[in-house]
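Posted in: Structural Biology > Protein-Ligand Complexes

Title: Requesting predicted complex, MTE in pocket

I'd be grateful if someone could produce the 3D structure tokens for the following input. Sequence and ligand are given below.
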Amino acid sequence: MLIRIPRFDEPLPSEITPRERLASRRLFLHGMAAGTLAATGLADAALADAAQRPRLPAQRNAKYIAPDKPTAYGDATTYNNFYEFGLEKDDPAAHAGTLKTRPWTVRIDGEVKKPLTLDIDALQKLAPMEERLYRLRCVEGWSMAIPWIGFPFAELAKKVEPAGNAKFVEFTTLADRAQMPGLASRVLDWPYVEGLRLDEANHPLTLLTFGMYGQLLPNQNGAPVRLVVPWKYGFKSAKSIVRIRFTETQPATAWNRAAPDEYGFFSNVNPEVDHPRWSQATERRIGEDGFFTRKRKTQMFNGYPEVASLYAGMDLKKFF
Ligand code: MTE
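-- Reply #1 --
Done. Output follows.
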């Protein structure tokens, strides 16, 4: 059993900052991010890493280019959530260098007619790579716009031929203590597991993602393969996936198990459903919105209204 779960946007036990000051402290850190990170060398390290990272050629898909200005590479690669490498935003950039992303295999099984175990390079070749600029909205109240590279998850689903009773897809990510120092913390019951309903997974927006900004994914962003589900809160977009299992019943997901009243299975971005401890009506765009800038309004389904039909007839306050 987990004894104490430091949740999103909650101070760590080691922090003594009173809760009411935490938000402003974090915003201050956002505002100062460039300077602070440069001072620690993290942003420089991220850029140096980018200089030698292999390119991942992809066709830009005009249908999926959000009208947003892309977030600066330095922000997208140094302000991360990847608890396997620590709980602070700069921990993944500082510690994910230990993650070994090749060789890497992904097992795809469960309720499918043709289960597969694929080497990451074979998985990458399964369908043509596309570049898409998606907004990613974190449940903590910040967002980014990132040029991801990948192909629709539906392309993979087609290959394994889901059986008639497959209703959900479970994504399990790597949990290796030797490579991931954050596993020593019991913040979650590892491994990190996420899930989608099969029709959500097969929606054309759901991207099996291998790269960003023209290159293979940096480790801290979920190399070598992650999910990006742009109409849901960021935690649904599981990083460093090792197993994809088609199931008949709804998978038990890591955040839902840790705090079911706070992190529902659906977790669609919804400005009308507050998190029990904070509003979801607005968000701060990392790198753009400074300390004194007004927050922008969060849009229903994060501005992807085409997914609304997936939830026809469902009470999205109950199924949050
Ligand atoms: N995947 C794993 N394996 N572990 C994590 O801690 N954090 C999630 C998600 N995927 C997480 C994860 C959360 S809370 C968010 S907001 C996004 O990754 C952040 O993605 P980014 O760091 O690339 O912006």
